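Fold this sequence, please.
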Amino acid sequence: MKIFTKICLVIGVLFLSSTLVMGQDYVNNDADPNATIKVITGSSDALFDFQFEFPVGVGGGEAGIECDGINIYSTKWNGGDFYKYQLDGTYLESFTVAGASNIRDLAYDGTYFYGGSASTTVYEMDFPNKVLISSFSAPTDVRAIGYNEDDDWFYANNWGSAITCFDRSGGIISSWGVGPTGDSYYGFAYDNYSGSETAYLWGYAQIGANLNELVQMELPSGTETGVYLDVSSVTSCTGMAGGLFIDNCFVTDFWTIAGLCQNDYFWGLELCPDGSGPTVIYEDDFESYNVGDYLAETNPTWWTTWSNAPGTPEDALITDAQAQSGSKSVMIDAGTDCVFPIPNYTNNVYHITFSMYVPSGYFGYFNILQEFAGAGSLWGMQVYFDAGGVGNGDAGGADL
């Protein structure tokens, strides 16, 4: 409910895949000189509904990417600049962090950003204030990097080197070799959202026909799960793999896996629901009732009638004559006056949704009360549907 190497290396990339030619900024792509074309089997976009894409604002070396839930930041791998964007892709500014340059991928721990320049130094940076906080030595050269917020660990590697998990002191937690498919990684992102009891590491790799492949690895073993995706197959990206991150700030109720095709596009794909959607207070499709049951008489916990007389003609009958889903619904006709009392909620926002079937040539009606007290009730709003299906209503004496 989420984007550069010397000419000799560029030539190597062109020989590997002629499909990359389409006007790409090869001179400023940070490409693995040892990248090879691999046939990826098992690729699927079943998990990856498209959410967004927008072009980079600068290019010329934009490669790494991360998000703090407020802004998106990208790196210039071949210089000292960082770039700041709004969440909708609007480019805001470039800036520098004294003491940190040539940063590739980025990670974020909720306060600071982390990245390396393909060496063992990890830089801890405060992007909003544009200052270097500290640095420490990792047990591997750091190009791709991801942060595990559950254990306060990092994952990093350099192209095809072993993926190493380490803590803030540089101590090794674990390590595993790349493959059998994943290789030439540029971005990592830690995922404890899409598996009910399993965490994953996602890698953004310069492999496959378009050098633009997502690879899922199960943690803590690092074993590839067989879930792969050519990002170019679901986006407009023609650039090779750059940085990667996961956040839930783009599409309500969903985690987004997002990345940067170098010097080309930011993209976002649906990863999974984020579990923070609205709490359902009451929901009923009427399938659990028997046809002919009175609704309020059968379920007095939630329903009553205008005169508090369940089981009388004021009550609504369960029917199988019409249904939007399943086979049952509630019949509301002349004389029916069923009421769903709502507690006195005074905070937050609440939504009421339901489906109403009005036969051709008939009128429809419903209302929401400010206070329910039978004949002494205080009206909130009411809605009418005429025989032609046109709706109108009023609230507080004013037309809706």
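Helices lie at 7-16, 295-298. Residues 7-16 form the longest helix (10 residues).
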